Amino acid sequence: MRAATRIGIALGVLTGALAAVVWSFTFTPLGRLDLPAAVLAKLSTLDGDAPMDFSPERRAAANEMTRSLTAIDPVDVDVAFEDRRVPGPGGGVPVRIYTPPSDEPLPFYLDIHGGGWWMGDGFVMHDRMRVLASAVPAIVVSVDYRLAPEHPYPAALEDCEAVLRWIAEEGAALGGDPSRIAIGGASAGGNLAAALALKMRDEGGPPIASQYLVVPATDLSGTREWRSYEEAYEGYVLTVPDIEQMIDAYVPDPRQRMDPYVSPLLEGRLEGLPPTLVVTALFDPLRDQGEAYARRLEDSGVPVTLHREDALHGFLGSPARADRVQAMAIEFVRRTLHP
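Predicted structure:
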């Protein structure tokens, strides 16, 4: 009995010590991380400084990891979905269309996925898109655009534009109201959404009711210094070297990185853009450029809501924060599509 007691005490002390070590991960120079996010951040440092692998195999593995890290509990919503291909400049663009029941034509929401322009298959947020479609309500179209490095800029933007114009032209046949279209995306998807809004404004394209930009990359030029690059250079899952390698893959020609459709923050005139919701994350190298874009939009007279979460890029490891951000987005999109 004494031996068993000693073993039990030792195990208890060991467990407590391990818990204390793990808990210590939540304390960072920038502030406190949620515990699961802190563990993810610590695990991310184990890869060291190895160059990124853009192979199809690594892409598939990254997509599966994204699904597991962003999964939500099964939702019981009455939303049908179907997969189609939309004509695009590089061939058929895969889309997934989410349609809630309605007696009247519904507006549209174009969802542009993130993934550093090199990963993501357009449908990793499947359950969240079902929730958004039901709650707004709106017909959600998720676009599976071409990816770098096989298809560098402007392939992804061209595919998103093709789908947007297809919604405007064929939306009535889908049972929707193509005069009401909102767009949105996260990270690289936020970059593409912002670029698409600029392009449509400049070219007199389909009017956009609002844009929702989540942890967006808005300046790929490398011409400005960002405090968040210094503060969150590494150790918070998304690192500055990762960002630089992804930019190299997406826009190999440095001269093109000055184009406002690559770096929306560099656009000289932001007037005439739609109402915008920008959400950033504290522990994210992209934080400051997302917030700089929000301030420039506001200075240009664009209605803007800016919100920051104390979370990692993409709110990884912080499901409650991700749910809160989605609720905020739903309310914003609902208000702009159902005025």
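Summary: The domain at 51-337 is CATH 3.40.50.1820 (Rossmann fold).
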